[in-house]
Task: inverse folding
């Protein structure tokens, strides 16, 4: 029987966190490498560590949190300046929540668990192909996930509403990125209300989260392999919980307003949804 891992205490103290002044130094050998190469070597090491834990049956919530924390340190050692605010909202009640936020880069998926897992067990809604991926598959199958196709909207809706609601009732919080694709610009017309509808069905709270993660850029040939930009600050902001039972349209409007307000303050372009798109989402 595999030995159960125990996660160390959270590296964060509410209400926030900021990379230490002067950054987090890398080893001498790593400092000789370009930031992007240093980052990808460190992230690959973290993923391989997660795979080893998964192979031993040890990649549960503790493993997820520990690997995520190491990914955060890898980013800092590669020049990232990270700022997190609103952590006190994660501890306001231990009941599960649907975390809803914008989707700028893959960095969010790697870093969110070390912020959320110490307060709430966490699962994800992911493309089902990721569950079969040769590198990431064993890791993703080690944590609660709902797989979606991104090609069959009706099937995906039922999977999220049914399986997601069941996971929430079992005590797991869920992260949902309602945008269909990652992007630096926040286009409200592509930010659907599925997360708000799921929270209403399951009777749980919604916690909005705004994220700036364009430190990890998109690649030209392979989207997940782009240059890293130490000049782009990494920012996460968690908002106050929206109470369980809030009508989906109201919860959606509050999430969008929170995300928009923070992204605009951070200098990120935002595009408002048209009236027609808003009416369609309310149906």
Result:
């Amino acid at each position: 029987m595999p030995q159960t891992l125990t996660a160390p205490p959270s590296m964060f103290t509410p209400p926030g966190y900021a990379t230490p002044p002067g950054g987090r130094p890398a080893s001498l050998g790593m400092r000789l490498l370009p930031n992007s190469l240093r980052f990808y070597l460190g992230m690959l090491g973290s993923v391989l560590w997660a795979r080893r834990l998964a192979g031993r049956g040890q990649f549960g919530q503790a493993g997820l949190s520990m690997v995520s924390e190491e990914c955060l340190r890898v980013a800092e050692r590669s020049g990232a300046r990270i700022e997190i605010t609103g952590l006190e909202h994660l501890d306001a009640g231990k009941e599960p929540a649907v975390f809803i936020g914008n989707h700028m880069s893959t960095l969010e998926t790697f870093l969110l668990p070390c912020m959320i897992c110490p307060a709430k067990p966490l699962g994800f809604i992911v493309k089902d192909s990721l569950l079969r991926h040769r590198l990431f598959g064993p890791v993703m199958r080690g944590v609660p996930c709902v797989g979606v196709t991104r090609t069959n909207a009706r099937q995906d809706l039922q999977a999220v509403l049914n399986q997601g609601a069941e996971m929430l009732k079992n005590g797991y919080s869920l992260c949902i990125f309602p945008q269909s694709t990652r992007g630096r610009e926040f286009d409200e017309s592509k930010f659907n209300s599925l997360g708000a509808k799921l929270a209403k069905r399951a009777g749980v709270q919604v916690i909005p989260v705004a994220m700036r993660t364009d430190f990890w850029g998109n690649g030209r040939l392979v989207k997940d392999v782009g240059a890293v930009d130490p000049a782009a600050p990494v920012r996460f902001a968690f908002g106050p919980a929206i109470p369980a039972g809030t009508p989906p349209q109201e919860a959606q409007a509050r999430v969008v307003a929170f995300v928009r307000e923070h992204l605009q303050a951070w200098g990120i372009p935002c595009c408002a949804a048209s009236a027609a798109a808003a009416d369609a989402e309310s149906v």
